[in-house]
Amino acid sequence: MAVDEALNERVRQLLGDRDIVEKRMFSGTCFLLNGHMLCAVNRERMMFRVGRDQNQTALERGATQVEMRGRAMSGFVWVERERLNRTPALRRWLEMARKHVETMPAKQVKRGKAPVK
Q1: Domain 5-101: which topology?
Q2: N or C end of the chain: smaller count of CB under 10 Å?
Q3: Whole-angstrom Cα distance, residue 59 to residue 114?
Q4: Where are the chain's structural domains?
């Protein structure tokens, strides 16, 4: 699994939140808030869950649409690593994702699957 620990650490510091849970998925590290994916870090780029209402804005800011099995996943975008080298840029993407995810009701933890913090 291609994991970028330096970028993971930058994300952790910027999120600075004990309510964030990390899981290994999407060929990297996924950061979840209230059980919902906020973002995912892999070697080349990051995925952000920005929501359908912010999708076009994200694309205009240089993101590309996430596609799974040939189907566009509205509300999920990829941002190339080069666009995240500066902390203010990464912070803006995280804030955009958090703005959307905070509007979603918290997911219930499934029996036997306690979150790892």
Answers
A1: Aspartate Aminotransferase, domain 1 (3.90.1150)
A2: C
A3: 35
A4: 5-101
Could you report the per-residue pLDDT of 8-37, keeping only the tens digit for each? 999 999 998 778 999 998 788 999 999 999
Q: Facing residues of 49 across strands?
A: 76
Token pair, residue 10, equals: 């930058």
The angle, 0 to 180 degrees and rounded to 10, between the axes of the packed helices 87-101 and 52-60 is: 160
Residue 41: strand, helix, or coil: strand
DSSP character at residue 61: T
How many Å is the Cα radius of gyration of the chain? 14
pLDDT of residue 74: 94
Which SS3 state, helix, strand or coil, does residue 72 take? strand
Distance CA 94, CA 3 (A): 18
Strand order in the sheet with 36-41: 20-25, 28-33, 36-41, 45-49, 71-80, 64-68
